[in-house]
Automatic annotation (TrEMBL):
Family membership: Belongs to the type III pantothenate kinase family.
Record-linked InterPro entries: ATPase_NBD, Type_III_PanK
Classification via PANTHER family: TYPE III PANTOTHENATE KINASE
A GO term for molecular function: ATP binding
Compartmental location: Cytoplasm
CDD domains: ASKHA_NBD_PanK-III
Principal location listed in the UniProt entry: cytoplasm
The protein's name in its UniProt record: Type III pantothenate kinase
GO CC annotation terms, alphabetical: cytoplasm
GO aspect biological process, one term: coenzyme A biosynthetic process
Cofactor section: K(+)
Keywords assigned by UniProt, alphabetized: ATP-binding, Coenzyme A biosynthesis, Cytoplasm, Kinase, Nucleotide-binding, Potassium, Transferase
Length: 260
């Protein structure tokens, strides 16, 4: 029976899990990030997720993790030790990624951003810009020499909408969807228009300035993350959407560090 790899991307709002058989992504799931989950609770949740896809969790023999929410990490490490009898590979200093980090302090770069770069390098020829729509939106530049050159960080779409709801007394909580028109004819549609077209324009503006800064050959622009598929059609600069870019990158990093 072929063994499988469990990849885990722990974000501030969501945790995305995927299971690979070789290079094939068999299934993936998204659950809420909760700091107080125990390793036993994780075991119940993850076993149930495998069962829903009719996958045998006993086929998993290793695990790789990227994490930007440190309090959540210990429970996942203990879960891996108890369930798979392995020490999971945690993305951080000393781990081979295939990405050269060319910024002032390489230790500051989030593990998810490095995983994104590794995922893009596994499928595309650099240079490229990666836009990740998460709790925060990151826009990162990877050079033709596969160097992580830095980027930009802005508050995410839902974070901004929640801030409006909590700090503007007459503005309601709204669903983030494409509005009927760029010109909103009521408060809800106006907020949706501002978020949808505003963030598409924000991405286009930063990407265009990055391209102007580095000059030709201009990089392709890869979008990933929860809102990528929704916002990309309104963007003039996004080339392609790859929903599972981080998971693919985690697998690629695992391949560089584990020998069997």
């Amino acid at each position: 029976m072929t063994s499988c790899l469990l990849v885990v991307d722990i974000g501030n709002t969501h945790i995305v899990l995927g299971v690979f058989e070789g290079a094939k992504l068999m299934a993936h799931w998204r659950i809420a990030t909760k700091q107080k989950r125990t390793e036993d609770e994780l075991a119940i949740i993850i076993n149930e997720l495998f069962g829903l896809k009719e996958l045998d969790i006993k086929r998993v023999n290793d695990m790789v993790i990227s994490c930007v929410s440190p309090p959540v990490l210990p429970s996942f490490i203990i879960f891996a030790q108890n369930t798979f009898s392995c020490e999971p590979l945690v993305i951080g200093p000393g781990v081979k990624t295939g990405v050269s980090i060319n910024i002032d302090n390489p230790r500051e770069v989030g593990a998810d951003r490095i995983a994104n770069a590794a995922g893009a390098l596994a499928s595309h020829k650099p240079p490229f810009i990666i836009v990740d729509f998460g709790t925060a939106i990151t826009i990162d530049m990877i050079s033709a020499d596969s160097e992580y050159m830095g980027g930009a960080i802005v508050p995410g779409v839902r974070l901004s909408l929640n801030a409006l709801y909590h700090h503007a007394a007459k503005l309601p909580e709204v669903e983030f969807i494409k509005p009927p028109s760029v010109i909103g004819r009521n408060t809800v549609h106006s907020m949706q228009s501002g978020a949808y077209y505003g963030y598409a324009s924000l991405v286009d503006g930063i990407v265009s300035r990055m391209k102007e800064h580095i000059g030709p050959p201009y990089p392709m622009v890869i979008a990933t993350g929860g809102e990528a598929g929704l916002i990309a059609p309104a963007s003039e600069t996004i080339t392609i959407v790859e929903d599972n870019l981080t998971l693919v990158g985690l697998r690629a990093i695992h391949e560089k560090n584990r020998t069997r």
